[in-house]
Amino acid sequence: MNENDELESYKKSQDEKYNYWWTIEFSIPISKHNIDINEEKLSTISALTDSIGSFFFHEHDKTRGRCLFMRADYEGSRGIDDVLYQVVDVLNEPEFKDVDLSRCYKTSNQPWERQHFDAFPPLNVGKSLVVMAPWHAKEEIQEGRTPIYIFPASAFGTGYHESTRIALSLLEEIVKTGDVILDIGTGTGILFIAALKLGADKAIARDIDPATIDEAKRNMNLNGINPKVCNLSVANLLKGFTGQVNILTANILLNPNLAMLPDVKKVLKPKGFAIFSGMTNVESYTFTSVLNSSGMKIERELRFGDWWGCRAVKSWG
């Protein structure tokens, strides 16, 4: 099945399931210092509550001031009580204490999927990549750029977030023919897919969330990746991994990046690279201080807005 067939199959399946959906709006106060962090926080809520699509907008709230809103849609085949139970359960987590559930309503007889599909135009990343939703596959691609087709869904890593763009930019500069890449917290699979399309020979991809595996497989199919060249598994960071690779990528949050650092050096080949992203500029100071004591040193770093990432190599041993 090619990317166009994949899209049509998905749209048809939605039409057959229902002709309405539930819409919930979440809001969180913003300032110029926390826009990206709060967008990531709301995106996490969307994933944890099994949203079928979401988008962001800014609006003034009478009691909370300027807020970032996320409008998330949920399958009409789900009872609203089931949806709200799941949403409230997630919002009760301490990290989401500043997020409000602003509105909840039923939306009927509108082309909801078109709004979602049109929200992901082709995006040039780095010097040689272009991230594209599959419904843009027929559009002209700039000469010299390799298309990475990603179906925007619930897993993290559509390519539009700054941290993913940092990781892709650091990755494209070093991938060479025959490389083996280990992608930790793979999400949509965008990083290992990019590496394979740029010449890597094999990928090992891990994520702690079982739901991401099917999404990564779908994106592999969209990009014509042979399943035999990638080992996808549900796993926690580097636990249980005993091999060595040319490249390790980890576009995850600060704490899991820190937790993994003591084991990174031993899984890299002598001239291997580790790419870390998913951290803010402020968090970079904490991460670099620990990295420098773990037998690694920064070879290159990038900043994109409030976000930071780096490429590291072994410093000794």
Do you know the CATH topology of the largest domain? Rossmann fold
CATH 4th-level superfamily of the largest domain: Vaccinia Virus protein VP39
Q: Give the overall shape, derived from the CA principal axes.
A: globular
Q: How many strands in all?
A: 14
Compute the separation of the termini in Å. Answer: 47 Å
Walk across the major sheet and give the strand order: 10-9-8-11-12-14-13
- pLDDT averaged over residues: 85
| Main β sheet profile | 7 strands, mixed
Q: Report the CATH C-level class of the largest domain.
A: Alpha Beta
* Secondary structural class: alpha/beta
Reported CATH architecture of the largest domain? 3-Layer(aba) Sandwich
Oligomer classification: single chain
Count of discrete alpha- or pi-helical segments spanning 4 or more residues: 9
Helical amount: 25-40%
Summarize the topology:
Blueprint: H1 3-17, E1 20-29, H2 35-48, E2 53-61, E3 65-75, H3 80-91, E4 100-108, H4 112-117, E5 123-125, E6 129-132, E7 146-149, H5 162-172, E8 180-184, H6 190-197, E9 202-207, H7 211-222, E10 230-234, E11 245-251, H8 254-267, E12 268-280, H9 281-291, E13 296-304, E14 307-314
Parallel strand pairs: 6-7, 8-9, 8-11, 9-10, 11-12
Antiparallel strand pairs: 1-3, 1-4, 2-3, 5-6, 12-14, 13-14
Helix pairs in contact: 5-6, 8-9
